[in-house]
Each structure stands twice: as structure tokens, then as C-alpha cells.
Design brief:
elongated, Thrombin, subunit H, 7-stranded antiparallel sheet, 11 helices
């Protein structure tokens, strides 16, 4: 009898141990699967995109070819009408090309989300109902009891390949990171993208948590305990995101974003209420950051103004750079590489950090500058063709011929007085957005191009664009004919700092005038003339403005010769020794500024002071109240030229140069 009892207890213990194993029992799986559904969004195709050849849909795998939806997450029924999932599976506060979300059952039924009853990005939780329902609804039971060591099972739409189950154990409980109001369940069951929003169940199939996060570095993932479902408000949606930031050098401002909106509400109502709020928040964050760090940042930092007073100016596109400590500031040229796609498509391109791409579009022969500026579709197609833009499908790259007309356009002026056309193209098939920011110059259209996820559109994107673009110094150069066409553009397209600039051409001469100087009847009859470059830089006397700091006239391109008229400013004791010595030589007319022809590398150069010496009043925030300024005329020609010819030509230039 005793042996029989011992055998009974052994069998009982073994049976109990088998209740919790690495694999969930088949009967439990069959009972809970009908309650667990995929979250899906419809596959979208862009009607306006033109491909070089038809997309090879027929070569896709069966499921990908026939499935009309993308599976993005998991949800589960908690009663006959309500479902639970993770809030980030339904990103209400983000802009998207997807306007509606659906659930799909194991039998393939698809039903649209109707009303949201709970929504908390803080807890990463959503509770909602549907516009229609499956013929039979099965719900899951919730169980708040869970302990370290319990066997648990992650059930969900792993990798978008359908509902699956994987087992593990509860490893620990980790406090939520903001205020420690509850403990996340940390579990060792594998969880993949697509598991989000799915249930974490015990061996009975009862839900102990909602899967919300995957740990990339180890196999310990996160679930929100079911006890926290009731803590999410039924009265208002709670939007919360930590540590949104603005940064420049070592200066940084981080702030949490919070917003509430009434519930219950439809998905569209919540998106309308919240989608612009984070975008507005970024604008407020930037303003607060600038106010807090005003004396350290561009354009108020006195070291910035001192540094820029003695910087080299470039006839090409350049960007304002600085060291991490914001002590040294300098203009750095952006080197554009020529790309010749065809006679009708010649452009100059460089990759960047502020924007993904910097592009100068040259207009084709006979084309109008204004027409090109007003053709964003043509501009985007030209850069996409030059870059080999394509769409991947079935292990093929299908070239894109045409992206169609932009979905949105905005004309705006930056605070430096330059006009921009911003165009956005929303790409539905992959939920991304192209953003192109363009402005006209004499030689062509300068554009900056970004390609982001569509969600970035209302994540402060345009706020950052309008701030960062201020630190890019554009080039204004072109032939006489290009300048004449540019200056005839509508007044609103001419930058503020060029409103007093004029250029006129007669048979054998040109005249150029600004409020600083005049060049009258400059000889312009020799063949092979190069561009006229107006050198622009930041105005040290104003808060946010640019001004003409120089003029470079290339009278012959090959070999290059011409002259440079440029304003030099008194430097501070914090400048480099080279800059200090240069200023001392300049005011004393010594060294390179002695008015004699000198050899500099492979060219001859003659530098001399022209016009009266003046003073420039600096912005009040600068360490100095004013600095001395002096215009310099620098004439240059190839080394094999005669010095007398250079002296004679430079003297003629001086004769036609006058100062108001």
C-alpha cells in the first residue's frame, strides 16, 4: 500500500511539473489562438510614380504576392467587444500615409478599428473596439498573479508571419524608468518585431502581461503587467515622450513632452488632436533653448563674430562650422561634384550632415531660371535619375522615372532674407517622405534634399530646417547674362542683401554697383570671360543678416585672371597669430599689401588698399563695440604674365572704382 501511495505522489508531482514546460500545451494553444489577432495596415501603391519597367509582382513569394496587408503587430480580445494592444503599434501622434488600422483573425477576416477607449504612450497601451466583428469572438482571461520563475509564453505575430508561441521564464521585475510607478515583467521568452501588443500568458493561457518592448542586447524582454490596464484613463488619452532634445555643441536642452486629449475618440479624432502638438512642442523647445543659451550660440556668441571677421570667403556654397566648445567658428566650403546625366541634366552634388544632399541644378541651354525654380517635380526627378533611384522588389532594382507632382508646397523666407520653396512628396508604398528646399541663384537652383520616414514630418522637421539653413552660406555667381536674368526675377525672390546690387552691360563694358562701391564701365570685351562672384557673409553689425563682403571678377578663365575686391576687418587679440600679422601688414601697407606685384604660388598678385578706411559698429552682444574696416583690391594673373601688364590692368580697375 505504501509503495502504491509513493507511486501516486510521484505521478502527481510529475503531472504538476508537466503543467509548466517550455512548450505551451496544444489544448491551451487551441483555446487562446482565436482571441489573438494580427494588427494590419493595407498595402498602398503610389499612382503617380512611374517606373522604368513594370513592377515584378508576379515574382514575389505567394504570401507577399497575395496578401493585401502588412502585418505590424498583435492585439487580443479581453471581452466580446474590446481589444488590447501596445500603443506604439497604433502611433496616433505621428504623421503617416496610413489613415486607418485593422485587425485580422486567424481565419483571414479583416475588421477596422472604431473607437479608442484607453490610449497611453506612457504605459504603451491601447484599448479599442471594432466597426464590425468576427462571427465568433473568443476572449482571454487576465491574471494579475505572476512570480519570478513562472513559465510564460509570448504569443503574437512574430516577424509578421502569423501567430506563434514561444516559451521562457519570468526573470525579474524592473521599475518603469520615469517614476517607478509599476514594475515591468522581464521575461526570457523570445520576442520579435510584430510581437508588440500581444499577450504574455501563463501555462493556463491566462494573460499576465502585454508585450511592449524587446531588448536587442539580450533575450530579456518587457511586458506591461495586466494590473496596469485599469490604471490607463478612460477619460483622456495620455501622450508622453521622454527627453526630446535640442543640441548645439556641448549645449543641450532636453524636455519631456506631455499632452492629453478626451476619450473615447476615433483614431482620426485623436490624430487630429495630437499630430501637430509634438511639432509645436519642438518649436517651443528650440525657442527656449536659444533664449537659455543666447550668449553662447549663433548669432550672438562674440567669439563667432570675432572669428567671422577674419575668415576666408568662398565663391562656392559653404557652411558655418564650430568646435564643440563654441570658441572657434569658421566657414567651410561644401565641395560639389559634377554629375552629367545628359545635356538636359547637369548638376553638382555633395552629401552632407545638416541635410542629406546639397545640389546645384544647372539650367539647360535656352531654359528660364524662373521656370526651373517653379518645377520641383523636374528637380526631384533630375536628382533621382542622377543618383540611380530605384525600388527593390523580388531581388530586382526597378529604376524610378518620375515621382509625380509634390503633395505639398510651401513658399517661405528665412531670417537672412532668402526665399525658399519647400516641396514634400509622400511615398505611400514605404511610408516615407522626400523634402526638397530650393532657392534661385544666378548660376542655377540650389536645393537641399532629405528622405525620411513620414513620421518625421511632424517631429519638428521644418522647425529644424528653418534654423539649420541659417548656417549655410549660399554662393551668388554667374556669367553677366546669368546675373541679368537673375536680377529680373520677381522682387520677392531676390535676397534682401542683394536689393541694392545692380549690374548693367553695354557693348564693351559692364557696370556694377552696391551701396558700398561702384564699378563703372569696366572693360568686358576679352574672350573666355569667367563668372562674376558676389561674396556674401554674415553682417557683424546686425543680429541676423548677411551683407556683401566682396566681389570676384574673373576676366579670363583659362588661364585664370581677374581681380578680387574684399573688405578686411580689424581682428581681436583672440584671433590666430597669422590673422593678427595679416591685419598689421595691411594697415601698414607692408608685406603682401605693399602695392607691388608679387608671386604667390603659380600666379602673380598685386594687393593694394582702396577707398577710405571706415568703422563697423558691432552688434551690442559682441565683446567689442566697433572695428576698423578696409577695402582691398587684389589683382591676379598667371605666373607667365608680365608684371607690367598686371600693374596696368589693376590701375585701370582702380580708376573705374569709386566709393560713395
Amino acid at each position: 500500500m505504501k509503495k502504491i501511495l509513493n507511486l501516486f505522489f510521484i505521478l502527481l508531482i510529475t503531472s504538476c511539473q508537466q503543467e509548466e514546460s517550455i512548450h505551451l500545451k496544444k489544448k491551451v494553444i487551441k483555446s487562446i489562438y482565436p482571441a489573438i489577432v494580427e494588427v494590419v495596415i493595407p498595402k498602398q501603391e503610389d499612382k503617380d510614380i512611374v517606373y522604368q519597367r513594370p513592377l515584378p509582382f508576379d515574382q514575389l513569394d505567394f504570401k507577399e504576392r497575395n496578401d493585401k496587408y502588412h502585418a505590424i503587430g498583435t492585439a487580443f480580445f479581453i471581452n466580446d467587444t474590446k481589444l488590447i494592444s501596445a500603443a506604439h503599434v497604433f502611433p496616433v501622434e505621428e504623421f503617416s500615409t496610413h489613415g486607418e488600422y485593422f485587425i485580422r483573425t486567424a481565419t483571414g477576416e479583416v475588421h477596422a478599428l472604431k473607437t479608442i477607449y484607453r490610449y497611453s504612450t506612457y504605459r504603451d497601451l491601447i484599448e479599442f473596439d471594432l466597426k464590425s466583428y468576427p462571427n465568433k469572438v473568443t476572449s482571454l482571461q487576465l491574471n494579475k498573479e505572476v512570480e519570478i520563475g513562472d513559465m510564460v509564453y509570448a504569443v503574437g505575430n512574430a516577424q509578421g508571419e502569423g501567430i506563434s508561441t514561444r516559451g521562457g521564464q519570468v526573470s525579474t521585475f524592473t521599475p518603469e524608468p520615469v517614476e517607478g510607478k509599476w514594475n515591468y515583467i522581464r521575461f526570457s521568452s523570445p520576442a520579435s518585431p510584430g510581437n508588440s501588443g500581444g499577450p504574455l500568458v501563463n501555462y493556463k493561457g491566462e494573460v499576465v502581461g502585454v508585450i511592449v518592448m524587446k531588448n536587442n542586447s539580450e533575450n530579456l524582454n518587457y511586458a506591461l503587467p495586466v494590473s496596469e490596464i485599469s490604471s490607463a484613463s478612460l477619460k483622456s488619452a495620455n501622450f508622453f515622450e521622454r527627453k526630446l532634445k535640442v543640441q548645439d555643441g556641448m549645449q543641450i536642452l532636453t524636455k519631456d513632452w506631455q499632452f492629453q486629449s478626451p476619450l473615447p475618440a476615433t483614431f482620426k479624432e485623436l490624430r487630429k488632436a495630437s499630430a501637430n502638438k509634438k511639432h509645436q512642442f519642438y518649436g517651443e523647445l528650440i525657442r527656449e533653448f536659444k533664449k537659455k543659451n543666447e550668449k553662447l550660440l549663433f548669432p550672438y556668441n562674440p567669439r563667432y563674430r570675432d572669428s567671422l571677421l577674419n575668415q576666408s570667403l568662398y565663391p562656392n556654397l559653404s557652411i558655418l562650422e564650430k568646435d564643440t566648445a563654441l570658441h572657434n567658428w569658421y566657414l567651410d566650403p561644401i565641395k560639389l561634384k559634377k554629375i552629367s546625366v545628359s545635356k538636359e541634366n547637369i548638376l553638382y552634388h555633395s552629401k552632407g550632415e545638416v541635410f542629406e544632399h546639397y545640389i546645384l541644378f544647372k539650367k539647360e541651354k535656352g531654359a528660364k531660371l524662373l521656370t526651373l525654380f517653379k518645377s520641383p517635380r523636374l528637380l526631384l526627378n533630375r536628382i533621382l535619375k542622377a543618383s540611380g533611384a530605384h525600388r527593390r522588389m523580388a531581388s530586382q532594382r526597378i529604376p524610378i522615372e518620375d515621382y509625380g507632382a509634390p503633395d505639398e508646397e510651401e513658399m517661405w523666407k528665412d531670417r537672412l532674407g532668402r526665399s525658399w520653396m519647400t516641396s514634400h512628396w509622400l511615398t505611400q508604398y514605404n511610408n516615407t517622405i522626400f523634402s526638397l528646399h530650393c532657392t534661385p541663384t544666378p548660376e542655377g537652383i540650389i536645393c537641399f534634399l532629405d528622405h525620411n520616414y513620414a513620421s518625421q514630418k511632424l517631429q519638428g522637421y521644418m522647425h529644424f530646417v528653418k534654423e539649420n539653413i541659417l548656417e549655410i552660406n549660399l554662393s551668388y555667381k554667374g556669367s553677366v547674362e546669368e546675373w541679368l536674368e537673375f536680377l529680373k526675377l520677381p522682387k520677392e525672390l531676390i535676397p534682401r542683401f542683394l536689393k541694392d546690387f545692380s549690374l548693367a552691360k553695354s557693348k564693351n563694358s559692364i557696370s556694377i554697383s552696391t551701396k558700398y562701391w561702384n564699378l563703372k564701365n569696366l572693360n568686358w570685351s576679352s574672350p573666355g570671360q569667367g563668372p562674376i562672384n558676389v561674396l556674401i557673409s554674415y553682417d557683424p553689425s546686425q543680429k541676423m543678416a548677411m551683407t556683401i563682403h566682396g566681389l570676384e571678377v574673373i576676366s579670363r578663365k583659362t588661364p585664370e585672371e581677374g581681380f578680387l575686391l574684399i573688405k578686411a576687418h580689424e581682428v581681436s587679440e583672440l584671433a590666430s597669430d597669422e590673422a593678427i600679422d595679416r591685419w598689421e601688414n595691411l594697415i601698414n601697407k607692408e608685406g603682401p599689401f605693399n602695392g607691388a606685384v608679387q608671386q604667390r604660388g603659380d600666379e602673380l598678385r598685386l594687393r593694394k588698399l582702396v577707398g577710405p578706411r571706415s568703422k563697423v559698429s558691432l552688434l551690442q552682444q559682441s565683446a567689442r563695440k566697433s572695428v576698423k574696416a578696409q577695402w582691398i583690391l587684389s589683382c591676379f594673373s598667371p605666373l607667365n604674365s608680365l608684371k607690367k601688364q598686371l600693374s596696368k590692368r589693376c590701375a585701370k580697375t582702380s580708376q573705374v572704382l569709386s566709393f560713395p
